[in-house]
Specification:
mainly alpha; two-stranded antiparallel ribbon; 49% helix
């Protein structure tokens, strides 16, 4: 697919990576360039979403450095387990892969023989 601003925006919705108000693409897991790479290699938006969710799963450990809990002074943050996050990402990747696979694709069309003879392919 040819990446466009509309496709990037739609893909961000599908992969739950919205740019925060006042933020930029670097405030998300995917830059515009990364999304363009995913979109340009995808057959459709659902295939692109599947790939992006797969990449999120692959990055789970490195994004948090293996941390499931973080504290600074009186402030404490507990994250969902890395396994649960990874499994969620992989499940979403599968959902979008099935959506991409469920779309009808006509690979070839052979016209019926209406003249009663064999066709030589010329009409």
């Amino acid at each position: 697919m040819t990446p466009t601003a509309d496709l990037r925006s739609k893909l961000r919705l599908y992969i739950d990576e919205i740019i925060p108000n006042g933020g930029t693409d670097t405030d998300t897991r995917f830059t515009e360039v990364e999304l363009d790479d995913i979109l340009s290699e995808a057959a459709d938006i659902y295939s692109a979403a599947s790939e992006a969710w797969f990449r999120k799963a692959a990055r789970a450990m490195s994004e948090r450095g293996g941390l499931e809990e973080n504290s600074a002074g009186d402030e404490r943050h507990k994250f969902v387990s890395l396994e649960a996050y990874r499994d969620h990402c992989l499940q979403m990747s599968s959902v979008y892969a099935r959506m991409a696979g469920s779309r009808s694709r006509v690979m070839a069309f052979e016209p019926p023989d209406v003249l009663g003879g064999e066709s030589d392919g010329c009409y």
